[in-house]
Amino acid sequence: MHPNPPDLTGATVAELSETELLARVFPLLADARATLVGPGDDAAVVAAPDGRTVVSTDVLVEDRHFRREWSSGYDVGWRAAMQNLADVAAMGAVPTALVVALTLPGDVEVRWVEDLARGLSDAAAPWGAGVVGGDLSGGPAAVVAVTVHGSLEGRDPVLRSGARAGDLVVHAGVRGRSAAGLAALSAALPADEATEAARAGYLRPVAAVDAGVAAARAGARAMIDVSDGLVRDARRIAAASGVTLALDEPLEAFADEAELLAPVAAALGDPGLGDPGLVRAWILTGGEDHGMLATVPREVGPPEGFRVVGEVVERSEHEVLVAGEAAARGGGWDHFGGTARV
Amino acid sequence: MHPNPPDLTGATVAELSETELLARVFPLLADARATLVGPGDDAAVVAAPDGRTVVSTDVLVEDRHFRREWSSGYDVGWRAAMQNLADVAAMGAVPTALVVALTLPGDVEVRWVEDLARGLSDAAAPWGAGVVGGDLSGGPAAVVAVTVHGSLEGRDPVLRSGARAGDLVVHAGVRGRSAAGLAALSAALPADEATEAARAGYLRPVAAVDAGVAAARAGARAMIDVSDGLVRDARRIAAASGVTLALDEPLEAFADEAELLAPVAAALGDPGLGDPGLVRAWILTGGEDHGMLATVPREVGPPEGFRVVGEVVERSEHEVLVAGEAAARGGGWDHFGGTARV
C-alpha cells in the first residue's frame, strides 16, 4: 500500500488499516528457527520434530495485568511472551513459535504496537522462537493473547502429577520481585537499586526457561511455572501428585532474594524480614515471577539453575507446609486466592 | 472446591474464581483425538504426526464482531472456532486442537461461558478436534482469542502463492449469507425462511473445512479462507501468485445463493438481483462466510464440494476481474476496505 512507508510518529492505530499496521509489524518479528511457513498466509506451519507440539495460551489485559502509563509497549510484549514461554518450559519443552491475537483501542500509538512486537520478539529470540502469525482487532482495551509452542525433543512432558515422597523440591529463578515491583510502582517509591530490581521484575520478568529444560533433561518428576505464587503453585503439584510439599523457611531458602527485597519493604514502612512481613509474603505468595518449581529424585540433586527449597513427603493433612507449619494458617496468605494477608 | 457444584443459574463470572469457572467449563470440552496431554497442566501436548503443526489465531471482540444481545454464548463459541478451523483448512490441514484465551466482563453469566464452551466444542467436534487449553481473565469486553492447530497429513501446505495462469478458480461453501444475516439483524427483519438462513449464516457460519482438505488432496495449487469477501480474498491470491483472477458473473456462478438471498434484499427495499444490487454486493464483498476459494489445474477439475467460479489468467492491469470488468470499478465495493458501496 505504501511503497515508501510514511513517517507515523505519533500516529494512532485508528489511522491505519489492519493490513497497513501488519505491514509495519511483520518486519520487526524475528524469524523462528522452527518456522516452515511464516506470517502472511491463512496459517503458519511450524516444525514439530518429534511428532508432538506443546501448546499453551495466556492473555494480558490492560488495567488488569498492566497499565499503559507504567508499561511500555515493549514491556507488555516482553511480559506476554515470557509468561507463555514459561508455560512450555514448565513441561520441559524448548519454545519454538508464538502467535499473537492483539486487541487495541484506537488511541494506541502505532509506535506502541511496534514496540510490543519488538518486546515479543526479543523475549523469545534466545530460544530461536519467533512470532509466526497473528490477528489484530479494535476493542475497548488492549488485550494481548499469546499462544506459544514448544518441542519436547523426544522427552516425556514433565507434568504436575509426577512428584513422589522423598523427592527434593527445587526452584529456579527469582521470587517475589514482581509483587514487590508492583507494590513499588503503586506507591511511586523513589528509584534506588532495590526498587529498580523489583520494578524490572514486574515490568520485564525473566522466566527460568533454560532451567525448565535443564530440569527435564536431568529427570525432574514434576514441574510448574510459578505464576500465581510459590505456595499456590506448590499446592497444585501436591494436589496433582497426591503428596505434601514441605517447603523450607523461605527467608532462608531465598535469603538472597529476601536481602534484595528488604529495602523495598522498608521503604513501604514494613519492619523487614520478619514473619509476618512483606518480604516473606512476597516470596511465598507473589505471582508473575515465572520461576520453575520442580521435584527431582534426591539422588539426582538440584538441576542446573535450581536451589533446594524443600522436600516431598507423604500426603498429610495439608498439601503444603512452610517451615513445618500448614501454609493456609501459618504463612499469611489466603487459602484460595493466594493473596497476602499481612 | 465444590464437591457438589452449586446451582449457578443466573450467576455471573464475577462470583466465581478462575479455578471454579474452569472446573465448570472443562467437562464441557470434547476430547481431541490428537490430545496427548489435555487441559489442567501448564501446557497441552498435541500430536503432530508428520512432524509439522499448522497454527493460526483469530480473535472475536464484543461489539465489533458480535453483540451479546444477538449472539448467544454458543453462537460466539461456534463462530470463534469456525473462523479458526477455516484458516487451517485453507492450508489443506485437518484441524486437531484449539486453545482459547477468554476475556470476560464480570456481568457475563456463567451459563453464557458454559454455552460458549459447548459452541467451541461442537464446532470442532466433526474433525475430532477439541479444546486442549485456555486462559480466563476479566476485562471490559468479551474477547475470544482462539488458536487452532492442524495436521497436513504429510502433504505440502496449500499457499496463496501457487495459482498459475490456466487454473480454474473454484469455490466451496456459501456466499454472502453472513453479510445478509447481519443486515437482516441490523434491520430487525421479521423471520422467514430466507431471513433465517441468512441469520444462521451470520450467527453460526459453517466453514468449508472438509472441502479445504479435499482440495488439498486433489492437488489445489492455491487456497484461501474467504473471510473478508470474495473479491478481497481473490485479490490476495492474485497478489501472492502474480496472476489475475477472472471471476465469472457472481449472479450466475452463485445463482443458488443469489436466489436464496433475494428475498432478504427485497425485504430491505432493494430491487433484487441486478447490478448494482444488494445480493450481488453480498456475494462479492460479504465477509465471514468462511468458504474456500482455490485454484486447481484445469485437468483436475473442481474438487469435491467446489464449483467453478472463474479462471486464472496472466497478470493484467487488474488483480481481479468480475465478469470481465475491473473489480475496483465495476463491482460496487471499495478497493481497500472491501466495503460495499451500493
From TrEMBL, chains A, B:
SUPFAM superfamilies: PurM C-terminal domain-like, PurM N-terminal domain-like
Swiss-Prot/TrEMBL catalytic activity: thiamine phosphate + ATP = thiamine diphosphate + ADP
Keyword Magnesium included in the entry's annotation: yes
Residues given in the record as Mg(2+) 3 binding sites: D42, D87, D225
Domain PurM-like N-terminal: 40-150
EC number from the UniProt entry: 2.7.4.16
Classification via Pfam families: AIRS (PF00586)
Binding locations of Mg(2+) 5: D228
Keywords of this entry: ATP-binding, Kinase, Magnesium, Metal-binding, Nucleotide-binding, Thiamine biosynthesis, Transferase
GO MF entry, a single one: magnesium ion binding
Chain positions recorded as substrate binding sites: H65, E288, W333
Physiological role: Catalyzes the ATP-dependent phosphorylation of thiamine-monophosphate (TMP) to form thiamine-pyrophosphate (TPP), the active form of vitamin B1.
Matching HAMAP family: TMP_kinase (MF_02128)
Protein's UniProt name: Thiamine-monophosphate kinase
Natural source organism: Flavimobilis soli
Lineage: Bacteria, Bacillati, Actinomycetota, Actinomycetes, Micrococcales
